Amino acid sequence: MLNNEQYVLFSNIENQNYFYQLSGMKNRYKVIFFSIFIVTLLPIDIKAQEESRYEKGEVEFVNSGLVQGLIWLVSSSDGSNSIYYKFDVTSIAQNYSPDDITLFRIFKGDKTFISDDVIINDISQRIFVQVHFTGEYNLYSYLDPFKKVFYIKDSLKNNIELQNTHIMPGNLNNYEIAYKREYIEVLKSLFGLDTKFLKYIEDTEYSVQSINELLTRFHETKNLDFRQYPAPLMGGWFTGGGISYTNLTHVSAINDSFISKSPFVRISMFGGLILFKELIEASFEVSYSYGIIFHDNHIDESGNITHYYEDIVRASILGPEVNFGIKPVNLGRISTTISVGINYNLLHNYSRALTEEILYNDFNYVEKSYFVEFQKPSNFFGFDIEVGVSYEIAKSSSFKLSYRYNHFLDSEAGFQKMQNASISFIKYFKK
Q1: What is the pLDDT of residues 310-369, one digit of tens each?
Q2: Fewer CB within 10 A of the end CB, N or C, for the chain?
Q3: 0.85 exceeded by pTM
Q4: Looking only at Cα atoms, what is the longest distance across the chain?
Q5: Distance CA 430, CA 257 (A)
C-alpha cells in the first residue's frame, strides 16, 4: 500500500511521463504536417518561378502574322535556343524553334530577336540572334557556349563576324587579360575607306553601345535610314508641317447670345525632340489660321420695330505653341499619339464690317448704318489636346492624321475654341 506522499509522487511521475509522450507525439505530428506543407508548396513555388520568366512581347510566326503574348527565351549550352509562347497567363505554353518563328520582341527593354543562320563550332545552325542595329549594315549578337559574339550583316546578306580574342597574361602576377581586337581590322575594311572614320574605328570598343555609335555616324554621314535597338533615351529630332480644316467658335460682339461656328484654314510648321526610347515627343509649333466669321441675326421689338444686323469678321491668328506627346500604341508602321499643349495666340489681322438696319413697320421706314472696324492686335492664351494616327512611309518619314481641340482663355475678341482636322508630314532624324 502507498501512503499519501508516495501516491502523490508516483502520480506526478506518471503524469510527467505521459506529458513527455504526448509532447513527443505532438512534435512528430508537427514534423509530418510541416513536411506535407513544404511538399504542397514546392510545385506552387516552382510554378511561380516559371511564370516569372515569361515577359510580354510579340511574335511573328513563319506561317502567320504578328501576335502578342507571353514569351520565355530558353538558351542551351551549345548555343541553340528556343522560346515558349502562350497567348495569356491561362493558356498552355508551346515550344517553338527558330525554324518556326521569323522574329519576336520583348517589350521590356525593347529587345528584338530574329532567326538567322550562324556558324557555331564549325556547324551551321539556325538560332535566335539579338538585333542591335538595322540599316545598310545590321548588327546582331548571340551567345555561343563560351562568349558573346557580334557580327555584321551587310546589304548583300553576308555575315561578317567581329572577333575579339583574349590573350592570357604571361606574368602570373598580372591578372589583366589582353585582347587582340581583330574586329578593328574588319571595321576598317567596311568603313575605313573614308579616312575621317579611322579615328572612330580605333576608339571603338567591343560593346553594343560603342559599335552602334560607329554605325550611327556612318549612316548619318551617308544620309541612310537606320534604327537602334533599344532606342536611345535621346532618340533624335524631327520636323514637319501640316494643313488643317478648322472649325472656330466665336461670340458676336453685338449680340453675345449669338455664337457662330465658322470655317478657318490653318497651316503649321513644327520641330521637336524624340525622348525616352521614342515614347515621348516634345515639340515647338508655329501656326497661322485665317477665316471669315459671319453673324446674321434679327430681333423683333414690340412687334413694330425690327432690328437687323450683319456682322462679318475677317481674322488671322498667329499661334506659337509648345506640345508634349506620348505614343501609347506602336504596331509596326502604324502608331498612335496623344499630346497636350499650351499656346499663345496673336490676332495678326482683324477687321469687322458691321451693317445695322432698323425697320419701322408702321411707317415702312428703314434706318441703315454701316461701318468698318479695325481692331488693334490683341493676344490670348489657350490649351489643347490632340489625338492622331501616324503611318510610316519610310524609316525616317511618316504621314499623320489628327484631331485637335483648342480652348481659348479670356479672349476679348470673342474667340472661344477651335477644332482642327489635320494632315501632316513628319521627317525624323534619329540618333
Answers
A1: 888 889 999 999 999 998 887 767 889 999 999 999 988 888 888 888 888 777 777 777
A2: N
A3: no
A4: 145
A5: 51
